[in-house]
Structures are given as C-alpha cells and as structure tokens.
Write a structure and sequence with these properties.
heterodimer, A: 448 residues, alpha+beta, Cytochrome Bc1 Complex, Chain A, domain 1, 2 domains, five-stranded mixed beta sheet, B: alpha+beta, seven-stranded mixed beta sheet, 16 helices
C-alpha cells in the first residue's frame, strides 16, 4: 500500500466515477422518522423488515463528563447496575429472562453519554421492551449488588495495568485534558470507585435518567405504530423534570509534556498528540478526510505506507481525531521494539510536517473521498450498527438528513480545505508524548 | 493483517457467537465446483446494497513444521505486496478507492482473504483475487521488511500479553506432536529464520484452486455473477494433489500442568481437554454444553464463579466444532484480587463434576437451544459473518451440508447426551492445566 502510482489504470478511473451513482441510491433509502412522546422522550426509527429482529439503543445524554469531581466512574457504575436487580426482578431473574429468549441487554457509559442496548427477536419484542423499561425505570441499586459490581470494576482497573495501550491513554488524557472531566477514565479511578456510596449512585441516576434526557434509536422489523404502542405501554410512566445542563468547562490547550513509563515489555507503546476538535466543529469533514490520508484508515494511509511498509518498524500505527461534544484529542499511536522507538517517532513527525507544509495531492484526495463515500453503506449493514450510528446522529444533532448529507459533505472537501485544517489542527510543536516500555533500551529523546 | 489465533480468552462472547451457524436456509444459494477444483458458494442477500467476497485456502499453521512455523501467516502478509499485474500496495489502494474494506486472517486450518464492497464493485474482487491466486511475486527485500512487521505483531499480541503467552504455552503442552502445538503467528526464532524461498514454495504448494473455496454473500444475482467467477478463476490450472501427512497426536495418558511466571497484575488459569471435532456426532452435545457454561449472564460459570461465589472476574468454557483435527474444549478463569488460583480451579472442577453427576434440567436445556437459534437469526444480519461460517466449514471439511443440518442436530440433543459427553471428555487424564503466576516487577 504503500506504493503511490502516478497514474490509474483507466478501468479503475471509470469504476471510480461510477461509484456515486450506485451508492447515492442506497443512502436515499435511509430516512429515519422522529417521534416525540408526551413525556418528552424522543424516538428515532428506521424500519427494516428483511429479518425478524429489532435493535434498540437508549441513549442517556450524560456520561463520565457528568461525574462529580471526586466521583470519577459514577456514570459507569450506575449503568453497570441497571440490569442487577429492579423492583420487579432480581439480577438473576433478569439474566434468566433475557437469556431464555436469546436476547442481549447491555449498558455502558462513555465520556459524553450512556448507552443501553437491546437486541431481540421480533416475536419477543414485548418482553424485550418490558425488561428494557424495568432496567431503566426501576433499578434498585441494592447494596449487595453495588459491592459486587464495585469489586469487578476494581478488578478491571487493576488488570488494565497489563495493557500498555490503556496505560498510555490514561497518562495522555491526564495531560491533554488537564482540569477537565475528560481527563478521567470512564471506568473511574481506584480511589473514587472505592469510596462511591449508594447515595452517589442514586443521585446520579435521579439527575440524569430522565425522559427529556433520553433518546431512543430503534432499527429493525417494527412499524411506527408498533413502536409508539410499545413505548406508550412501557415508558409512559417515565416522568421527570428537564435535566440540568452539564456545567461546561472549556478546554484549553495544555503545555506539552513528555511522560515515560517504565515497564518490562518487548515493545514500546508510543502515544503522541494534543487537543483536537469537537463534533460540532464546522471543519469536521475536512478534518476526517485529512486524517484518513495521514493515518486514519485502511492500509493505504501515509503513516502505514511509510512506517510499516517501507521501513518495517511497526505492525500498527494509527492517527485519530476523537470528536466529542467538546474537543476530543488528536492522537497517533504506534508500537515498536525499543531500539526503533526514536526512529518511529521521528518518522511520524515527518509525516505530520509534510502534510502541514504541502497538503495532499489531487489523487490522494480523490481516493480518500471515494473510500469514505463508497464504504458508507458498509457502516449501515446490520441493524445493530445502524442503531448505534442513528443514536450518534441524534446525540450530536446531525439531522435526519444525515444519511443523505454525509456523502455530500465529504464530496465538498477540497485540497485547500485540507491544507487549511492541517494548519489549524495539527501542532507538531505542541505534542505531548507518552511512552510505555523498556526505557533503558528505548532511550527516548525529547521531541524537537 | 490479523492473525487469528487462540486468544479466545479475550473475546469469548464474539467467538461463541460465531460458533453458531448462521441462517443458511436462504433459498438463493448456488454451490458449484469449477473444472480446476475451486469450490464456489454464492448466496443472494438483497437486504442491503453491499457484498462480501472471501477466498479461503486450506493452509494454516497445521501445515507447518518445527523450524518453519509462522510461514502461512507471513505469506498472508506477502499476498498484499504485489503480483505480476499489480505493484506493491496496489491491492489495498484499489480496494480503498472503490469504497471497499479488505483484510485477511490466518488460523490453524486456514488462510482467508476478504473484501467488503458496495454491491456494484464485486467485479474488482474477482479480478484482484484471481490475480493473486496465481501471480504473486515475493520480493526478497519486501519479505525482509514484512518479517519485521510480523515480529512486531508477535511482540504486541503474544509476548507482551500475559494471557496470550499462557494460551500459547498451554497448546504447546497439550499437543506434543500434532502441529496445533505451534502458534499461528510462529515462534520468534522461526520468524528470524524464514526465507523468501520458504514463503514462495509454500505459496506454490498450497495456493491452488483445488485447495480453495470462494464464498460471496450479498446483493447480486447468481445467474449473472457465476459466469463472471468462472471466467476469472477457471483459467487458473488445477494444482498437484496435496498428499501432506499430518502427524497424529498420541493419546494423552495423564494430566499435564504448566506454569508461566511473568509480570502481570492477576493470575489466570486455563484447563484444556482433548475433544472431538465436527466429524463426531458428540460435537452437538459439546456445543450445547459450551453454551450452558458460558452463554450470557445466566450461564453456569458466570452465575456461579462470578456472581454467586464472587471468586472470578471472568470465567468461561469454549469449544469449537469446525476444526480440521481434534482440538481442545477449554475452561478459563481469572481470580478476583484476593482470591487464590486454587479456589478458582476447585470451582471450575466442581462445575465439571456437576455436569457429570446431574442431568441438565429441561428449562435450562430449552434456554440454551433458544439462545443458539436466536444467534442463528441475528447472525444472518451480517453478510461477512455468514460467509465466514461457510468458508470455515468448507475449509475444514465439514462442508455446507453440516451447517444446513446443524440446528436440527442441536435440537435433538438431550440431557443424557450432555451428561454422557461430560463424562467421556472432561476427564482428568485428558486435561492440561496452564496457570499464570504474576511475578513482581524486576527493574
């Protein structure tokens, strides 16, 4: 990949021109319906009747960024307890009922929101909604269950210390998002998880699990009428005031830092980067196209071509802009043997400087756009994937036209845009660097 | 490219899900064998305007010998490095600029390549995959570079991951002679010594149409697509018959126990029992048994070890029916901080004993069968997962018919069957235990 041929064979060119026709028609079919219920609950629905299955994602618009300052991990612990006992069912009963119909129910938080996912056969949809509503509306937060789940989470926090990429991320987030809730891991910190009380959990639940703070994304073998009837039956009793908006703490670029973490490993894990963009940023589309070319996607990125294919330094190297409701990070991660560490870091910086100085070629841009537009239908194939994407569309308020707009946004990006956003959002002189591994062998040099 | 080795520990749910055959009752299935021996399976699935193409070669670490391990997987990487028709990197670039995703994976029994496209791009797969089935060039310098990439892959996936390192040691202990002894990614010393000639010879020997299966699932008409498949692939000459002999594992005659000590936060235990594959009808009760142990939060190992007794952070049991030769049925558990390995091992043994001494209740059996049937329907939502199931079944010799009959065979499993197979296979003399003991940091 890795080898940029100056000319395309003509039949590929033809294929490329044809792609928009084929794919546009596919996008046009996806038009979600939006329904707002009396209690303020918003539903997004895409009907798909080819298989007798339904996927539901309930999004609560609060995540670990809503954790109180000294209670990092409370959003995650609250979500983890939803299926561990309600006023109607014990934890064991709920597990038995879900498994008996071959369904799955899971819940988890991320930085910005909490997602509760149900996947169920059409024939069992009524029971599926019954259980979903029970988990969301009636959790008991029984003291014994809290202790049990707390121990599991503490165990996970401990075993994460065997994962070099997680160790690096924790250190990186702490520096880049200093003094902002994004600096803390979603799972929480050992000390905060230790001390969290039942009241803390109940208080988080009462503040955030409100119908006006929720968004339902439903995809599958179900009609609008059936959906409304089910939601009325199982969620009409969900009442609550409007949620109090999260106090927005603005993010500031932090002074760069280098943090080296010694660990007896055969590879060093390198994570470098700085503050990036939010999902609302009008430059979102040019930024993701630029990032695709730099190191974001597939085997043809500049990073993989130069660091992996031409130098054999790494198995994986990846760049990303993690756009959250506020600014996320721009980061590049790679792993290599200790003696290659400095060479891999230098080569990565060269790629950033190169794109900053010269932007991208017409061919690279055309190929990146063709990939991003042409592969869009692959992201919509299964009901589960589609429900997840629909949920994000709703959360970030991207509009019901998103599925037809996406290719248009990508198509509009120009070389000038790429150069402009590279200059605005890539800052090689402000990079924080985290290295985890055998430091005696790696002899890491400070960034220039 | 990913190497698919036995890191079941990390992704038990995914693997369990994939181990259930997916809906194959679709009416629009075309199966044929071309004149050169290439098997072709086409499934029309018009639900979304996408298609997956996969080609499966019957070669993996099972075909490797000590001194040359890792060869199949390294060759998989070289398949992206250029043919007489397309230069280095052209394959991935062409797929990407047509909106496709591609990758490959290697296992004990197979090496497989795939592309996922919008359905109007399928001709590209036919062109690119038929080209590299026969025209691969392996450049010596490129081979040297890619060996380094694969060594990095080994370092991150195995050497720096305590659980993978443990599983690797467990297999090397449970299989003394059979090549399941070796890791798919290869031993590091072999990776240091493989040559370009080794890879090219491996390619010439195994990458033959009569040693491969093409599976295409998606939004197309088979009547139009099949002639195109024939036109692209049938011109490739049939290769020599492969008469390779695989060493036979002698019967295990007593428990084996192996310890891995390394820097780690928590200990872990794996227990593997020799078990039959799809060729033996006991495969159906063994599959149901694996579900009883691990499928969902009401499954026995979660409920007992994680929920009730709170001994483990995670625990499960795993069985794979679609392997070329007999593999392992295995159990695993990670003790929660403060709990000993001995306590987790005793709890796993108690669960095995319970399967042997008590019959599974009707409700539990019904639940597990419901779960397997539901997975069947959910799995049909992904073209890729369906194609993967078919490719694997064809490659290990079970064939498509095995998948067709699978659900009805699962439905006939009785509580007696489950008790019988638990008594027959989950026995101490057939057991290999691997334990991970954390060692304090040294430097």
């Amino acid at each position: 990949m890795r080898f940029q041929s100056p000319q395309w064979p003509s039949h590929y060119l033809l294929a490329f021109l044809f792609i928009f026709i084929g794919s546009q028609s596919a996008f046009a079919e996806i038009k979600p319906k939006q329904i707002v219920m009396k209690n303020g609950l918003t539903l997004l629905l895409i009907e798909r009747h080819s298989l007798p299955i339904v996927s539901v994602e309930v999004l609560i618009k609060s995540g670990s960024a809503n954790d109180p300052a000294d209670l990092s991990g409370v959003a995650n612990l609250t979500a983890s307890l939803l299926d561990e006992g309600t006023q109607k069912r014990s934890s064991t009963q709920m597990a038995e009922e879900i498994d008996f119909i071959g369904a799955s129910l899971s819940a988890g938080a991320n930085l910005d929101y909490t997602a509760v996912n149900l996947r169920v056969l059409k024939k069992d949809i009524d029971l599926g909604f019954d259980i979903l509503s029970d988990a969301l509306l009636n959790p008991l937060f029984d003291a014994k269950e809290i202790e049990r789940v707390r121990r599991l989470i503490l165990g996970s926090i401990l075993s994460e210390k065997d994962e070099p990429t997680t160790i690096a991320s924790r250190a990186f987030d702490n520096i880049v998002f200093a003094n902002h809730p994004y600096q803390n891991p979603v799972i929480g910190l050992e000390a905060s998880v230790q001390k969290m009380s039942r009241d803390d959990i109940v208080s988080f639940y009462q503040k955030h699990y409100l119908p006006k703070n929720a968004l339902f994304s439903i995809v599958g073998d179900i009609t609008e009428k059936e959906t409304i009837a089910l939601v009325k039956k199982y969620f009409a009793g969900w009442k609550g005031s409007s949620p109090i908006a999260r106090k927005v703490i603005s993010l500031k670029a932090q002074p760069r830092k280098t943090q080296l973490i010694d660990k007896d490993l055969t590879q060093t894990t390198v994570l470098m980067g700085h503050l990036g963009i939010s999902r609302k940023n009008p430059d979102f589309y040019p930024v993701i196209v630029m990032n695709y070319i730099l190191g974001g996607g597939g085997f043809s990125s500049r990073l993989l071509t130069h660091i992996r294919d031409n130098k054999g330094l790494v198995y994986s190297a990846h760049s990303s802009f993690n756009a959250n409701s506020q600014q996320g990070s721009f980061e590049i991660s790679l792993q290599t043997k200790p003696s290659n560490t400095n060479e891999a870091i230098t080569a990565t910086l060269q790629e950033i400087n190169q794109i900053l100085k010269e932007g991208v070629s017409e061919t690279e841009l055309a190929e990146a756009k063709a990939y991003m537009i042409g592969s869009f239908p692959l992201r919509l194939e299964t009901t589960g994937k589609l429900a997840g994407l629909l949920s994000k569309v709703g959360f970030h308020k991207l509009g019901l036209q998103y599925f037809t707009d996406y290719p248009k946004h990508i198509e509009k990006v120009t070389r000038e845009d790429i150069l402009r956003v590279a200059k605005a959002y890539l800052k090689p002189n402000q990079m924080t660097l985290v290295v985890v591994g055998n430091l005696a062998e790696a002899k890491v040099k400070e960034l220039p | 490219m990913m190497s698919n080795f036995r890191s079941v520990f990390l992704v038990p749910i995914v693997l369990l899900f994939l181990s259930v055959p997916l809906a194959h009752s679709a009416p629009n299935v075309t199966r044929t064998v071309l004149k050169n021996g290439l098997s072709v399976v086409l499934i029309e699935e018009p639900k979304a305007p996408v298609v997956t193409f996969q080609v499966w070669y019957k070669v993996g670490s099972r075909n490797e010998r000590i001194g040359k391990t890792g060869l199949s997987h390294l060759l998989e990487h070289m398949m992206f490095k250029g043919t007489t028709m397309n230069g280095k990197g052209e394959f991935s670039r062409t797929v990407a600029k047509n909106g496709g995703t591609e990758n490959a994976f290697t296992g004990n029994d197979y090496t497989a390549y795939f592309e996922n496209f919008a359905s109007d791009r399928i001709d590209l797969s036919l062109e690119l995959e038929s080209d590299r089935m026969v025209n691969l060039l392996i450049d010596t310098a490129e081979f040297g570079l890619e060996s380094e990439v694969v060594k990095e892959e080994r370092r991150s996936r195995t050497d720096d991951d305590p659980y993978s390192a443990l599983v690797e040691t467990l297999y090397a202990t449970a299989f003394l002679v059979h090549p399941y002894h070796n890791p798919v990614i290869g031993w590091m010393d072999d990776l240091n010594n493989l040559s370009r000639e080794d890879a090219y010879q491996h390619y010439k020997q195994y990458y033959q149409p009569n040693n491969a299966t093409v599976v295409i699932v998606g939004d197309f008409k088979s009547a139009t697509l099949l002639p195109k498949v024939i036109a692209r692939f049938e011109t490739i000459p049939k290769g020599a018959d492969l008469n390779t002999r695989t060493p036979i594992e002698p019967p295990q005659i007593g428990e084996r126990r192996v310890i891995v000590k390394r820097e780690a936060q928590l200990p872990a235990i794996f227990m593997g029992f020799h078990a039959p594959n799809y060729k033996n009808p006991d495969t159906y009760p063994l599959s149901v048994l694996a579900s009883i142990l691990s499928s969902g939060k009401s499954s026995r190992l979660y409920k007992t070890l994680v929920y009730q007794q709170q001994l483990a952070l995670d625990a499960g049991g795993q069985y794979e029916d679609l392997t070329t030769d007999n593999e392992l049925f295995y159990f695993y558990g990670t003790p929660r901080p403060g709990i000993t390995l001995e306590a987790v091992e005793a709890a796993l043994n108690a669960e095995i004993k319970r399967l042997q001494s008590e019959k599974v209740a009707d409700a539990e059996l019904t639940k597990v069968k419901n779960q397997i049937e539901a997975s069947f329907v959910f799995g049909a939502d992904s073209n890729f997962a369906r194609a993967m199931q078919i490719g694997r079944a064809e490659t290990v010799g079970a064939g498509y018919d095995y998948l067709i009959a699978y659900l009805s065979n699962i439905r006939s499993v009785t509580a007696d069957d489950i008790q019988r197979v638990a008594q027959k296979y989950l026995i101490e003399d057939q057991k290999t235990v691997g334990i991970l003991i954390p060692k304090p940091k040294e430097f």
